[in-house]
Amino acid sequence: MRFLLFSLVLTAFAQISAAFEIEDQTRFGVEGGAERLRIISTADIAFFEPMVDPFLTAHPDTEIEYVVVSSAELMRALQDENETFDLAISSAMDLQTKLANDGMALRHSSSATLSVPAWAVWNDMLFAFTQEPAAIVISNAGFADLPVPKDRHDLIDLLRNHPDRFRGRVGTYDVRASGLGYLFATQDTRASETYWRLTEVMGALDARLYCCSSDMIDAVASGELLIAYNVLGSYAMNRVGQDAFSIVLPTDFTTVMLRTVLIPKAAASPDLAREFVDHLLVQAHAAPTDGVAAELEQIETSLNRIRIGPGLMVFLDQLKKRAFLSEWTNAILQD
Amino acid sequence: MSLLASAAVLAVAVYFVVMSVASQVAQQSQDNVLEASARSILDSARFVAGEISLDLPYSALSMLDGVVHERVFYAIRLEEEFLSGYRDLPRATGGKAGTHGFFSAAFLGDEVRIASVQRSVATDMGQRVLQVSVAQTRMGQTQALARISRTSMGIGFGFFLSSVLLAIVVARSTIRPLDRLTVSVSRRGPKDLRPVAAPVPKEMVPLVTSLNSLMKRLKKSLSRSEDFIAEAAHRVRTPLAIVRTKAEVARRRVQDPATRDALSEMIHAIDDSSRTAGQLLDHAMVTFRLDHLSEQDVDLPQLVAETVERQRPVSELKNIHLMTSVLEPWVLKGDPILLQNALLNVLDNAIKYAPDGAQVDIVVKARAGGAVLSVSDTGPGFPEDEMETLTGRFARGGNAGDVIGSGLGLTIAKEVIDAHGGDLNITNIAGAGGCVSFFFPLS
């Protein structure tokens, strides 16, 4: 009921301001340039900026409008509002897959899409251009006298052995509010039953639930949290003041989310969009130079790269989602 | 040509058969996967605490995304009530619980194959039918069929080529004995009516048998008519000789000039007839010998000299001078009697038609390609417009006048020369007279 009311309010609000809720918005390149690209994305502007710059160098007379929304809003904008965007970038692989599967994406095949690994392209519609692991972030101060956990078993043992220290100081995604949190959680359950035990343990320690990775990292950095589970590793690595925390990629398995891009069917300038996709792919799948990709390459065997495909839509099923959320809620909120 | 057409028709038929089988198999396998997927969803359905709960297996949808990426849709319905998935996915109508159905439809911009399975579940409102439909685009199937189409096109083309090749080989081997037979029959001389002895395939034995029997009858009938002619000529000649002798005696006896003239005309006519009969006999003899041509070494200058000597008494009667100005040595294979007969006929003609005091020159010249025997006279020559037909039977020159002749002489000569592989040429020497030449090529 509360949800319904909230969404009604939200809808009414959206009617007034925009058809969908915009979190942030910016413009790259020349204002009023000869060519124009509208991008709707879930990625922060700071995260995206380095990827845009080389493209603008190659296409100087281009204006790029960049709109940041949540993954659910992105879905809504494209599917329900029929907004014209030339590219849709999202970390919510399941929703992106559903968009492509439902025929909302243009097919695109080029030398760039053919040269990337098979897991990075689905049906010539969906293209992965980053790999972002779900990491455990621990506070260095909090672990001064404790061994750093290598995997989930270590983590479970640690939490069980020191309940007083960790009570109320463990954080993870609220999978009811965060699409990415839901994706990580569901993929964790597919990989191992450990996830449910860990959730039970975290629930017993009154785990705190967050909407976003950055909030969790902030909380760890400030010492408010000692452990944050399933945090976007790339956000943690790119963050300043890293000496306050350490990033652990669990060795039993590390879930890897692929940030994907698709060209919506209603794109106004699809050709430029295709060029941009090629640009993203070439840049992303060249020799890994930056931290994340290089680090991932070293632990290739324990990577649990989420496979793009219709399987992802299973957890979007409303019956399935309802069952999962109720089970998860039972585990984490042990009232 | 009809061979090519039928091979092409067969090849096309092969293509379509392969394609139809392949598309059925592809359809079947897609249906099987779809049904398995739909069943795995259906099997996860439970009725818990007053509502249907479905634990959609991850593999139910991921199994549909193979090497070729496919778009996948599903819908779960409890009778008319939509529970989950794609609300607008077309559903199979009718059907009972536990059954399944497949159909193709268009959905969200692509053609999809849909499998629907259903079963009844026990709810607090009694048994109700739960239906699960799973749909998949047909990209993989299309690609597979395109691949198979290329393959079966190759198969069809190969089939076409090999059947054409086979047909050609079979036709060749069928026709070859026929060709051999044709060659062996057409290579025969005009008088060769022996039965065909070359081995032929079983199928052609009746043809050859009837051909042989035809030739046998033909030969029999030919020889019978030639026998008849020879017999008739023979039988006519003897009484003619008697009649001629009697007429000669009678002419000496009678004094009446009119009667004498009449008897002279009679003798002339009798001479004509008996000469014709003689030549008919000659012709029959030549025909017989041609059938059994002997292959002896014949010294051509010697044969010419002897023949000329034989004719000399007759020619001197007519005051015609026979001469052999050039006799170069030459030996050929053949029948001396026939060759002599041929030359005799030509000489006979020359003596007959040349005027008194004329000269007849018989020449044998050896050349690189063969020998030429020519008989030329200082007579009137041949009529220009009849040269072609003179060698036909009973053909006589338009300027022969009242000279006795049967018209068989040149015919006999030509037959003999032909049988020896040579040529007979009739020419006129400008301002001199006629010339008949035999050409014997180097064998």
From TrEMBL, chain A:
Q: Which domain of life is it from?
A: Bacteria
Q: Which GO terms describe its cellular component?
A: outer membrane-bounded periplasmic space
Segments spanning the bilayer are none
- Respond yes or no to whether keyword Protein transport is given for this record: no
Q: Which Pfam families match?
A: SBP_bac_11 (PF13531)
Q: Does Signal appear among the keywords?
A: yes
Q: SUPFAM superfamilies from the entry?
A: Periplasmic binding protein-like II
Q: Which UniProt keywords apply?
A: Signal
Please state what the protein is called: ABC transporter substrate-binding protein
- Organism of origin is Tritonibacter multivorans
UniProtKB/TrEMBL annotation, chain B:
Any one cellular component term from GO for this entry? plasma membrane
The record's listing under Pfam families reads: 2CSK_N, HATPase_c, HisKA
Its EC number(s): 2.7.13.3
Instruction: Give yes or no: UniProt keyword Membrane.
Output: yes
Catalytic activity reported: ATP + protein L-histidine = ADP + protein N-phospho-L-histidine
Q: InterPro entries, alphabetically?
A: 2CSK_N, HAMP_dom, HATPase_C_sf, HATPase_dom, His_kinase_dom, HisK_dim/P_dom, HisK_dim/P_sf, Sig_transdc_His_kin-like_C
- Cited CDD domains: HATPase, HisKA
Limits of the Histidine kinase domain: 231-443
Q: Where in the cell is it found?
A: Membrane
Primary localisation category: membrane
Q: Which residues form the HAMP domain?
A: 172-223
Q: What class of enzyme is it?
A: transferase
Q: Membrane-spanning regions, if any?
A: 153-171
Oxidoreductase recorded as keyword = no
Q: Which GO terms describe its molecular function?
A: phosphorelay sensor kinase activity
What keywords sit in the KW lines? Kinase, Membrane, Phosphoprotein, Transferase, Transmembrane, Transmembrane helix, Two-component regulatory system
- State the protein's name: histidine kinase
Q: Which organism is it from?
A: Tritonibacter multivorans
The root-end lineage is: Bacteria, Pseudomonadati, Pseudomonadota, Alphaproteobacteria, Rhodobacterales
Gene name as annotated: qseC
